[in-house]
Design brief:
Helix content is 36%, strand content 25%. It is an alpha/beta fold and 149 residues long.
């Protein structure tokens, strides 16, 4: 079957399809992080995300709890930084693999949280890591275990 599109229109269509697909793929890897200017472990967590394929934009804020509240994450799940990736909120030292799984599975949820700052979590590397959980946070603030580490 012969194409009814002229060669230059086919090329243009292909470029548009490829560039649109690339934009969609990049959107899922874009992470906006809201952190205190003085927090070192937040920077290490950002490096962890970048090493795992995420593109990170950082916003230095003096009031991380206000940024957390604006994004809808309950204070009781708070940590030292809050982030947004796509339609999800990420609170604390959540491993990149958990974020990748979240984006792949796309559950109906507010996002993920690793409350506090557990030693051994990404950005909080320690000689004596402790077991911790990544929580899936619902819009109403309820949680369930998403992953155990």
């Amino acid at each position: 079957m012969k194409s009814v599109l002229k060669p230059h229109f086919r090329s243009l269509l292909l470029v548009l399809l490829v560039s649109t697909g690339t934009a969609w793929a990049q959107d899922e890897t874009q992470v906006e992080v809201f952190k205190s200017p003085s927090c070192g472990c937040c920077g290490k967590w950002i490096e962890h995300l970048q090493q795992n394929g995420f593109q990170v934009s950082t916003h230095e804020v003096n009031d991380v709890p206000a940024a957390r509240k604006k994004l809808g994450m309950p204070d009781r799940l708070g940590s030292c930084h809050t982030a947004q990736v796509g339609d999800y909120v990420i609170e604390g030292h959540v491993p990149a693999a958990d974020i990748q799984r979240l984006l792949k599975e796309k559950p109906k949820a507010l996002g993920l949280a690793v409350p506090a700052m557990p030693p051994g979590s990404p950005g909080m590397e320690a000689a004596n890591p402790v077991p911790y959980e990544t929580l899936l946070v619902q819009a109403d603030g309820s949680t369930r275990v998403f992953a155990r580490h």
